[in-house]
Amino acid sequence: CTRMCLDKPPQPPDDVKPAVQAQRKIPKEKEEPPLKATEIENLESDKVKKLIKQYEEETGKYAIWRGTNTVAFKKRLKGEKVYDHLRPFKDIPIVKDIIKSKDSHYDILLIDDDLSTLRLLTTYFKSKGVTCTAVTSGTQGLEELENNHPKVVLLDIILPDIDGFEICKKIKSNQKLKNIPVYFISTIPSSEVEKHLAETKADGYILAPFAFSDFDGILDLLG
């Protein structure tokens, strides 16, 4: 028995081209979330830190934060929009809560179609260090409440689209909004307003013309 040992494999003749082997594409591995959450020590909002921690605990996945220390970045910090999760996580309920949550970026929502009243009250509250947002219709007020939870709502009864009684009912029947105190501001006689307090579940009312001292109770609520 003869055994041949070849140092090199046999080579094809020069005039014969080697067959081209088909190359199989190897699929790329899916990227997995990092083992650790990105540092969030620069975040200025304790609320956001708490929400991110809650998200991580409930999902077992880590929050991903992308951002740099630019002016725009710092502005986002103050607005509490300081999260950017991996796309697959964005439909998780807790993430939706984080994204939508402004949670009292201001103290009072004013709903009144009288511009002079709005200017007067916003100027007064600002002098007291109270932040407020003003809208001139019931529809705008309800839209504002979809994503914002002020600490108090001051509501005119006579509005161009939806009356204040109906707006108050909508607020108080909403599970997320029902605990927000709602106070009517109106020129309607007190006897007429009081008829609707029970059905609307309003927390009180202030009659116009009013004095600034009439809002002392509101300021006390804001602490």
From TrEMBL:
Keyword terms of this UniProt record: Phosphoprotein, Two-component regulatory system
Whether Phosphoprotein counts among this entry's keywords is yes
Q: Which PROSITE patterns match?
A: RESPONSE_REGULATORY
Q: Keyword Phosphoprotein, does the record have it?
A: yes
What InterPro entries does this protein's entry cite? Bact_response_regulator, CheY-like_superfamily, Sig_transdc_resp-reg_receiver
What processes does the entry annotate via GO biological process terms?
phosphorelay signal transduction system
In terms of Pfam families, this protein maps to: Response_reg
Q: Where is this region: Disordered?
A: 1-37
Record-annotated Response regulatory domain positions = 107-223
Q: State the name under which the record lists this protein.
A: Response regulatory domain-containing protein
